Amino acid sequence: MRLQSQIQLFFIIFILTNLFNTINTEFILKDLTDKNDLLKYSSSDCGFDFLVYAFDSRGGSFTDIKLYYRDGTDIPYQRLFYNETSSIFSFSTLAVSSSSEYELPIYGKNVNYPDTASLTLKYNCKYISSSSVSFKKISEFSIDSFGRITSLLKVDAFENKTPYSFLACSKCTILAENTPFGYILVQIKTDIPDSDIDLYFVDTNQSNKSISLKNYYKKQYFDHIDDYNTFPNLSSFKEASLMGDLCSPLMVFVSNSSDIYLPFYAQKSSNLFNKHFTYRLIKSMEDKYLYIGNFDYISNNNAGNSVSYELIYQSGSNFPSITLSNGFTIHDGSRRNYLEFEGIQFSSTLGYSFQPFYITYHDTFISTFPFGFSKGNVNNYEYDFSFLPLQNDPIVTEVAMYSVRGQKGFSYKVPTQSSTHENPLVNSFEFIKLDAFKYILKLSLSSQLTPVYQIKINDYQTFGLETLVKGDTFNGYYELLVDNFNPIKFIRFNNLDGGLINNQFYNILSTQRFKSPEITFDYFKLSDVTALYNEVDVTNKPSSNILYLNFDIDPNTPIALYLYDPTNNYISNKNHFKTENLWYAIYNTTINRFQIEFSIKANIKPGTIPYSIMFSSEKYIMSSILPKKAQINIISKNIDQYGPIFSIITKETFETSLNWNFEIKDDYNGFKNGYIVVRGKTDGNTNNFTLTTDNMKGGSKYSAQYTISIPLIKPCFAQDYIITDVVLFDEQGYNSTFSIYNSYSQSISTSLNNPFVNYMHDSKINILTADPLYCDAVYSSEPFIRSFSVSSSKIDVFSNSRQVDFILLTEDSQGLIHSQLPIVYLSTTNLRTIECKFTFVEPVSIREGNYSCSIELPVGFGYPDPILLQVYGIVNRGGLFGGSSTASLGDQGFINQIKTERSTNGGPIITGSSSITTEGSELWIYGINLLSTQISILSEEGTTENPTISKEYNTAVLIKNISPKSKPFLVISKNEFATNSFKVTPVSKVISNWVPPPVTEPPTNPPQKCINNCNAPLQGTCQKTGCVCIHPWIGADCSSLVIEVSPPKQNSTNPSTEIEVPSDSIKNEILYKSFISMVSLRELDIFGKVVEQRVFDKWIFTSINDTTYQYYTNITVSDQTVHINAILRWFTEKTTISFANQDLEMYPSSIKYTVEISQYPFKKQLNSLQLVMSAGLQSSSTDNICSSQQFGDTSSGDNSNFIKIQIDNHSLYGRLIKRCLLDDTIRGITNEFIDQKDLNISTRTFSNSQNQLNLYIGINIGYFEKSVTIDPDFSVILDHSSANSNSPNSICKKSGLTKTQIVGIAVGGAVFLIVVLIIIGSIIYRSQHCLPLKIIIYKIFKKSKV
């Protein structure tokens, strides 16, 4: 017993000791490995990398940490992050593929202390072989919204990984994009299209599973191709002189197919690779289609190349070699080091052709003429510019200059500005969702050594201290407005490596990862995608549409639509597209759907248009995998996907001017605007010409004539003038572009959009030469700056007063070209440069120039560094230019920089906003110091409103309840320090939030009740649809009788009908007249609001026969004539007619209106037309009668509406068919009553009463392209009972007193008499003379109680 007690005591002590050690342990291990990295697939083994966090509150050196396995074997590790108490280690292990989960215990301790910690790591290396894999094709190869030819596949047998390492394809590229788990996107390579595409799954045992995909390309096309031409039209392109560098020769061909994307391919003479030529469809010509393609002969290197192509199409053709001109060479320059800035100088006698220079220093600045050109002319010049090195730059950074071809001219290392540097500690971060893909990124940063003066996201978006909202550069809070459509991969501080990396740890204390907002989605959560219109006609007009998404995700998820742009199908990289081409989704709470409203350009290629539903630039759903109801088919009779071109060019040379005469042609879309730049080839003087339809000399937007003129005023210098740049836009936004120098990345784009396509054989067409006998000025000396002044040498770049004014006085002995306007360049760190172009002030003489300019600096520009000033672009009349760098301005004694500062009390500054439609609602405004400000809105009319502030931050405020506005308005932000305003221009809403019903087949009327058993069996029978009447009976219960009357009198004025019906009573001859007429045509928006109304006035009458008449009129809407034809037919006997595939019975004495309306210019595709008709009935009797009106569904099977206007026992009966012929297609329409006051027109009709009733009927017709035909009819009937006060919508008035009135009078009189008797009896009862009577009454009531 004692031994048992000792054993129990031992266990108690053991448990308490371990519990105590557990509670008081100082050393902790934690697994930080990403869960997605813990599952891998293999047919042999897998490698795993683990991250382990170790914490010891006692501190000490973490070199004393030991990690080991259960058997005591040390684990070799790498220490990634650490501080006094914490560290993160990484180590690797290998696992053999298996069907079960691995568990790996590891242990750790600080060798200076006895306690230990343990951790069990769990991971999977799942065995996989090709036998367990199956492929499923989700979509065939098709062109996607990025211009790629792709197919989507699903690979089964994988849980949450896409096994790219197991996949192989020789003729396709496997795109490792963020498709959902198990899905694979493949893209066809540009190989010879001669066979199907095979995709293989290959395991480590070399067994495989494959799927064969039908090739998108075909080696043999069965369509007919002709009219093959080249531009320039030469037998050999060797040494071909082209107008612009890197502008490819072009070819065009005509095909009878609009589905050719890449029918040609080419093989270089070196036989090193095959390459598809780049083509695109640009125009339709009746039943043929015009394509354009380029000879991509350009290599991105420094020297000329001689390349020959064999162009293969069926039998093939061979083209001679094409020679690339040599690239421009930049000579080595010299460094000029100043106290506060750096400078670079070089000179050249090799000539300059207005190509851009690329200057790199942390960022890249693309400099164009005249920046840097300080002296000489383009044949012999000096180049001199200054730049500001980064303060506290922690690294040695190279500054370099490159040509457009990538040739490196010179470079040198800028010494580091700081001996110590470190990345700041990120204390916290937070993303706050704003509008679309825009977020606020809040950062709390602290640093002991290096102040944070610059934050750069993904190396393309740079932020300065304008983002610092609290604290200072050593311990501050920052707010950055970021667009996460292109997800944040990393953030650098002060250009240092490291910083924040997406999905990596950022703070050892919190063991958290930095993560940019990420959308996790699954195709299967998208339960429905529907387009409002699955078929749209974009012939000569754009089209609007809505895409509805039923997606089981957060309604705040940013979603956008990206439509394939057929002009850019040469782009095979989706990263080329820009966010301005996106259509953003909103969440419609009424229907609980995302909806994306978008427009489709006019005259694009017919067929299904590809699109993508974008969650970011990396995550998207392609339309090719969506159901049929999500596809959008384009109807386009005309194709115009090329910008405006010069169809005719003539040149004129005069002593005093040089002229180009152009005819600009754009067949279908029409020319909208553009510009042309002409430069002097020697002195670089620049002439800008803006072209619009307002300043054309003649023609129309489809073929417009223009003249541009270069004035030559003596003294002048004889030189060539060259068109260096052209940009022409059509009405749909397509542009044609030309530049004499282009970057390599733009060469294909520029070549395939050349406005000089008809003149590529004439490399001099863009050059005119001044007459040297007239312009005889010679070189002398360069122009110089006589005076340069700045309004302030110091400016608060965080205030509302950030405007800087400059005044420049120049001089030249030969005279200045005053029209050549100099430019002052303002530069700060990272080569960030803005420019202010001077305007000309009246000169004192030809030798002097007086200029001024003003510019508002961006918020925070340059702070805390100075802003460097440089002036270039002064040109004299002797062919020379001049300019001054920052250093040169300082040498001349002029102000050459502006100091920047930041006030402690900052007022609000609004720098931008989200978009808002003319319907109002809500608006995000962006800026600085917006927190706790007063927001108001001032309209152009001067009215002020105070919207609701819904959310507010330092850099963004959401305001709501903004009333609808069609004109720009000011948003005003105010606090105790300052007031700031920002102009917002509303945009027209593409389509309203309201969801109109889709176009359907004509509806079927619901079953009606058989009232009075349809007066069967003689007058009608009861069917499933309701009462079906036997002629001549009619009505809801077949109790009304069609009256046969004489045909109405012929009306030669307008299509109105007056039917007279005599009374059947001999004693009381009462005349009934019915009236039917057409009143107006109205265009309604989707809310039923009238946007256009035309009242019918004059008609042209034609008598077809005794019973049929035709009326014609037309109206003008938006400069378009709309034709209306109405045919009225009177029926004298029962007749069966057919309309819209439906047989209709017409009774004697019925009249049918057949109305046809031609093409109508709808304001929007969602609008509708309403034909307004008037119907009335009038009786000559006014006594003892009622009128009544009724509207409902027929029950005879004709699926129509009926109207019934009744006076006494006579009615006008109208049948309004619910179908029409819309663009030769049967479609449904609706009918309704219209209140007279809603017509807003003078109707000249009588007031409704008991003996006359006039109603207005609206026949509602949906959007149509060509024409619509409707077919209502009317007849007069005799009712078995008269209208009375119980009839629907009755109006009654009778002579004498009705029974009800007599009863009311009798009852009222009796009551009055009783009241009078009571009053008299009460008076008598209270008098003394009534005492005996009171005694008798008392005795009677006393006895009754016994």
From TrEMBL:
The lineage of its organism: Eukaryota, Amoebozoa, Evosea, Eumycetozoa, Dictyostelia. The keyword Cytoplasm does not apply. Residues 1073-1277 form the ComC supersandwich domain. This is EGF-like domain-containing protein. The keyword Transmembrane helix applies. Residues 1010-1040 form the DUF7949 domain. The chain crosses the membrane at residues 1302-1325. InterPro entries: ComC_SSD, DUF7034, DUF7035, DUF7743, DUF7949. Residues 783-903 form the DUF7034 domain. It comes from Dictyostelium purpureum. It comes from the Eukaryota. Keywords: Membrane, Transmembrane, Transmembrane helix. Residues 422-505 form the DUF7743 domain. Residues 639-766 form the DUF7035 domain. Signal peptide: none annotated.
